Amino acid sequence: MSASSPPGARRSRPVVANWKMYGDRRMLAAWGQALEERLGASPPAPVVVCPPFPYLLLFAGARRFALGAQDVADEEDGAYTGCVSAAMLRDCGCRYVIVGHSERRTYQGERDPLIARKVAGALAAGLRPIVCLGESQAERDAGRTEEILVRALEAVLDTLGPLGVESPELHLAYEPLWAIGSGRPAGPEDVASVHALLRRRLRAHDATMADRTPILYGGSVRALQARELRALEDVDGLLVGGASRDVDEFHAICRAWHDRERPQD
Ligand code: 13P
């Protein structure tokens, strides 16, 4: 990549599988093996797999995809029953961690300050946090999308301070709640405008951070959307839920996304 390449060409462009709370040991092991076989020697962009916590070590030997977790504690260590620290995730081979997923905001009541502390802890431990932001259907209908996204992003950036500006590891994911699990992905125009908004907000803090930070899209992604989304300048990666559990579909998504790497495409 030459120094004169556009900023977007220099950002990491991962495709991430979020398994959520599905699967069992046998299923995940078979799926991981099948994915390794399908991905081939060197996928042109990172592929990341986020299984449930108990199955992280199943993937310790994976060579063609990286490992991520679905959540992390905000504390370094201590008497926090049921929590898993960033250092433990690193110890189990994780490189990435999803933070602030809307399902955790909804069902575990996670709020922006806690999420911001988790992001800070993940960065400090050397993980790449994928910070999820998104509006509900009601918020969208009320025209509050920008307000909700900006508030969530600013909470993280304020807590991080210089760490956020300096860290090359921060990732964002736009995951509209109304698109998750609905089979109804956001349209390319909506995605393009929200991603551009997030990029502008990052730029208001620091131009280098804005150029460097990958912004992923998640919400009912299938191979068809991967093909549409790969053309959008500010969409740097995909966060895939349901479709990732079918290894053929997930591989088709990776292929469709990675095709963007081909100069003639
Ligand atoms: P679906 O792809 O099932 O809509 O899930 C998206 C998601 O929440 C990924 O984190």
Describe this structure in words.
- The protein has an eight-stranded parallel barrel with strand order 1-2-3-4-5-6-7-8, surrounded by four helices.
- α6 (145-160) runs parallel beside α8 (188-205) and α10 runs parallel beside α11.
- The longest helix has 18 residues, at 188-205.
- Helix content is 41%, strand content 14%.
- With 265 residues, it is of the alpha/beta class.
- The protein contains eleven helices and eight strands.
- The radius of gyration is 17 Å and the shape is globular.
- The chain has helices at residues 25-39, 86-91, 102-107, 112-124, 137-141, 145-160, 162-166, 188-205, 207-212, 223-229, 247-258, and strands spanning 15-18, 47-50, 66-69, 94-99, 128-133, 171-174, 215-218, 237-240.
- The model has no long low-confidence stretch (mean pLDDT 93).
- β7 (215-218), α10 and β8 form a beta-alpha-beta unit.
- The chain has a single domain, classed as TIM Barrel (Alpha-Beta Barrel).
- Bound molecules: 1,3-dihydroxyacetonephosphate.
Number of domains: 1
**Mean pLDDT, all residues:** 93
- Side by side, the strands of the main sheet go 1-2-3-4-5-6-7-8
Which homologous superfamily in CATH is the superfamily? Aldolase class I
Global structural class: alpha/beta
* CATH topology-level fold name: TIM Barrel
Which term fits the overall shape? globular
Give the ligands present: 1,3-dihydroxyacetonephosphate
Q: Estimate the strand proportion.
A: 5-15%
The run of helices and strands is EHEEHEHHEHHHEHHEHEH
Number of helices: 11
CATH architectural category: Alpha-Beta Barrel
State Rg: 17 Å
Instruction: Please identify the top-level CATH class.
Output: Alpha Beta
Low-pLDDT ranges = none
Total strand count, please? 8
Distance between the termini: 18 Å
